[in-house]
Amino acid sequence: MAQEVFTEITKLEEKLQKANLPPDLAEKAKDMLLRLGRIARIGGNFAAEFESTARYLDWIVNLPWNKKTQDALDLNNAQKILNAHHYGLQPVKDKILEYLAVLKLSSDSGQGAVNPDSVGTNNQRKFGRAPILALVGLVGTGKTTLAYSIAGAMGRKFERIPFGGIGDALYLRGQSRAYPDAEPGAIIKALRRAGSKNPVILLDEIDRVADEARATIMGVLVELLDPEQNAAYSDHYIDFPFDLSEVLFIATANNTTNISTAVMDRLEPILMPSYSDEEKITIGRDYVLPRAIIEAGLPKEAIKIEPDVWPKIVRPLGFDGGIRTLERTINTIVRRTARLIVSGEGRQFVLTEKNIQEFLAI
């Protein structure tokens, strides 16, 4: 039994040696293994200590301490990606392209010019960086999909952290290993999934956190978004600073009322406009309907919608600032068409003012 115990410890040591950890953290991990060996020799509660140590080592060796992706900051390509996935929104696209231009210049000059007055007391040089975007607008106006497009345009990994209903800052910050079921917070988990220290991380709906935890969660957000602080972000479980300065954070919100002033000071809000009926017709006809037909496995010519029918499709129940209702309506049309085709009632259907109610949701 003793031999098996020390064999397991040796495996952990080999795992640690192969990892490229920061020197201080590697030394800390070695001390944990030495302690584990002492417990094994004196016959303490080895099983619990081994499980805790092995789990901690698994987390730290799989974090991207030095791994990152190469940015592909081509503004022409970025514009093509934005146009391919989003109709209209030109002022918003211009803001994003300006933002990417700043990142490109900073990257080309070595992460920005050094400001001699901004050398910190810890002798760390502070580099210039673009402000953090906050996409603010009604539900369904394309905030989340724009964040995906930004990540695609930059060639970076993408992770999303939903903030809706979060009731504890520990969800973000993690819990101390003193607790049996402790685990890292959502930020560290996102970095491990991304496998990169410079992903795009979407902080989705930061205005919808639970009221009782709003103050503490906003405090964590200040640390995440402040370039003076996030170079040494501390997760309670990892208990070692992680450099988040190369992470591109993008926040979304329906409104800014419930976001603290300290957080807003670190964001650059971009207002997402509501879509007009004319824009929705174009989006429905050229983007949503073709995609829905492909996803349903229907032939491209299975559905034809006459031009004078589109106003009833884009506004079946009244005004809607976003396009989610439009997407649901079109998906209903596609599903009902699919049923008719499978039932053998036809291969192509033309939607007119006379029959449109048969395809719309009741």
**CATH class group of the largest domain:** Alpha Beta
| Discrete helix count | 14
What is the CATH fold-level name of the largest domain?
Answer: Rossmann fold
Can you count the beta strands?
Answer: 9
CATH architecture of the largest domain: 3-Layer(aba) Sandwich
Distance N to C terminus: 69 Å
Average pLDDT, rounded to a whole number, is 85
Q: Find the structural class using helix and strand composition.
A: alpha/beta
* N-to-C SSE string, H for helix and E for strand: HHHHHEHEHHEHEEEHEHEHHEH
Percentage of residues in strands: 5-15%
CATH superfamily of the largest domain: P-loop containing nucleotide triphosphate hydrolases
Order of strands in the sheet with most strands: 2-3-6-1-7
Share of residues in helices:
40-55%
* Count of folded domains: 3
Largest sheet: 5 strands, parallel
How would you sum up the global shape? Answer: elongated
- CA-based gyration radius: 26 Å
